[in-house]
TrEMBL record:
The keyword Hydrolase applies. One of its GO terms (cellular component) is cytosol. Gene3D superfamilies: Cysteine proteinases. The lineage of its organism: Eukaryota, Fungi, Fungi incertae sedis, Zoopagomycota, Kickxellomycotina. It comes from the Eukaryota. GO terms for biological process: protein deubiquitination; proteolysis. This is ubiquitinyl hydrolase 1. Residues 1-241 form the USP domain. Belongs to the peptidase C19 family. GO terms for molecular function: cysteine-type deubiquitinase activity. It comes from Smittium simulii.
Length: 245
């Protein structure tokens, strides 16, 4: 909850207190009133005290938020390495969220950058060690849109093509892996390796493809199976396959 939320909550509580006070003050204490009315008045006064305690509690939180804000501002301006007492970061959400990207028009060269950074709850950044399963041929048909956008909130923005729509034209959505960059090490240090598929004539079968493995000024030749098992991919470059194949 933010300072703005607390101020808004206090405003709502204050309005309730004011309304209840008006009801209580409108009753004439000198006149004879029945027992039921007396009980309502007592209940109203009890509600006023309860609401006032909530307002006071929110005021304490607001004061604490401002104090933390001042500590953070001073640290950012004067000493970013200072340890801040009683200042912490709370998780806004612990649920799992996903993001999906779809293509309206597939490019000739598809460059995929895999984000390996993980932002931890303690403020540190680490490398995501998840292994990437690499394939020599990638079919992008399931990830291409039907070409029509839908703004209704209860349906996807753009629905992917149905299998029947892209099965006849699937060759136009297939890509071949032609280059590959991997990273070994941590988030702050490490080394990059580049892999480049060696271009042969059209008679060479994919099973016999070889790759250059490049490290700085050194290189070696490896088979395609070795490249597919690297697992620590960072960037992948796919080239659209010709419809003549």
């Amino acid at each position: 909850m933010t300072i703005q939320d607390l101020n808004l909550k206090n405003s709502e509580l204050g309005e309730k207190v004011s309304n209840i006070r008006t009801i209580v003050e409108s009753s004439n204490p000198e006149s004879e009133i029945d027992t039921q009315t007396q009980q309502k008045t007592i209940k109203h006064k009890s509600n006023i005290k309860s609401l006032e305690r909530k307002i006071e509690k929110n005021n304490v939180l607001i004061k604490e938020f401002y104090s933390q804000k001042e500590k953070v501002s001073n640290a950012l301006e004067y000493n970013m390495d200072a340890e801040l007492e009683n200042v912490g970061l709370s998780k806004k959400s612990t649920g799992l969220s996903t993001k999906q990207t779809m293509f309206a028009r597939l490019p000739k060269l598809l460059c995929l950058h895999l984000n390996r950074s993980m932002f931890l709850s303690n403020g540190y950044v680490a490398k995501n060690p998840a292994k990437i399963v690499t394939t020599p041929v990638l079919d992008m048909a399931p990830f291409s849109t039907s070409g029509h956008l839908d703004t209704r909130p209860n349906v996807p923005i753009s629905i992917s093509k149905k299998p029947a729509d892209y099965s006849m034209n699937s060759i136009n959505s297939k890509y071949q892996l032609v280059a590959f960059i991997s990273h070994v090490g941590s988030h702050d240090s490490g080394h990059y390796y580049a892999y480049k598929r060696i271009v042969y004539d059209s008679s060479t079968t994919p099973e016999k493809y070889n790759w250059f493995r490049i490290s700085d000024t050194d290189y070696s030749i490896v088979d395609e199976k070795t490249v597919m098992n690297v697992g620590n991919g960072f960037m992948l470059f796919y080239q659209k396959m010709s419809s003549k194949r």
